[in-house]
Amino acid sequence: MNVPHFDVAVVGAGLAGLAAAESLASAGAKVLILERKPFVGGRAYSYDHPSLNEQIDCQHALLGCCTNLVDLCTKAGSADRIRWYDELIFLETNGTRTRLKPGSLPAPLHTSFDFLRAPMLNMSDKIAIARGLMEFLHGYPQTDEESFSTWLKRTKQTERAIRHLWEPVIVGALNDSFENCSTKYAGQVFHESFLKSAQGGRLGIPTLPLSQFYSYVAEHCVRLGSELRLSQSVTGLARAGDSWRISTGEGDFTAHNVVLATNFHQTLQLLPADVAFDGLRAGISHFRNAPITTVHLWFDREITELDHAVLLDTGIQWIFNKSRIRRLPAEHGSYCELVISASFAQLHATREAILSSALNELTMFFPSVRQAKLLKSGLLKEARATFSATPGLDAFRPSQATVCPGLFLAGDWTATRWPSTMEGAVRSGRLAAEAVTASAGMQQKFLSPDLPSAGWMRWIAPVR
Asked: Of the candidates 315, 360, 307, 357, which has an alpha carbon nearest to the alpha carbon of residue 339?
């Protein structure tokens, strides 16, 4: 019986796997993509909720500095399905709104007018924040040993500055407490999105449910000649001569190269039982997950004219008004998604408790919720939404090439120089594709360059 053979088998159709497959297929490789779920996207996925008759997801946004993700979407023809915003709105429970939007001054001063006028901060807060941002002006630390909590104390940040800027941005971006976030990646967030250029800080939100959105990338891979097989779990991986044998519930495949584009839990399960991987296994033991909980609410009327906002001093970090973002017809009602980052407490709370708390907090910001009728609601707990960029973790993030010929790794948790983001996942896939081609004696480059520094930042912090 003939076993189908491929140049490369990519295990996992999340962003890392799709990015690796797209790069390799575009270079002429015969690629097989195996995904255990019936949809693509990995952790950036959506699914049909059986009782709500709605497709829901855990909202993932991107920034203008996510050059590889934007490039991948452009190649797949889905970049026009991203709605871009230049303005961030911070809401306080007393109704005060702070808007941060680029003005006419060059970077890094492009948001300085709005920052100086920000009502959510007093002058002492602003001085402390400016003092802190000066540390990230020329870049961010190249080592990750310091925790962000230590940095906040060292730079003498005020309590209000922490609550109204550092916390919503860093907890929202890195999805963990300050103690479990390294200053390196917190600094990267502020350098790339607040200081380096106005374009880097633009907020992009897909206008489709995430699996639909990333199906464009999957279809692009297929157009390039890749074979995509959904609902097909890999049950075994073994070296067979100069190839790999990949066993699934529906049969076997062979490939010269395998890219494990899986999270670190699945990678542990799929690694061959070989002492050569003991170091990798030991390194993976240092990783931990951080959860995100999203609350999905459908009202009979619009509760706010805002498309999105940062919510201050409550357990909710963000509201995404998905009816407005997706430009849904009025008869569809008003669909809002609330995001609770680093939701360790919510993992063990009941649906009723989380929903009640979320509605109470939402009413503090939008009193019109009291007059609206809640038509239906849903809750999505993602226990493994991200990995925590804990201090010192870089030493254990593996490169994409492994000690075994023909076996490569992809995933946001691998060595990408980025935290756990969609951009980090795409970078990992492209780096894995570069490692595959390098093993064949070719030096192809798939990684997109970083955004260039703009304004005065071109002289203050040129791109490394």
From this structure: 315
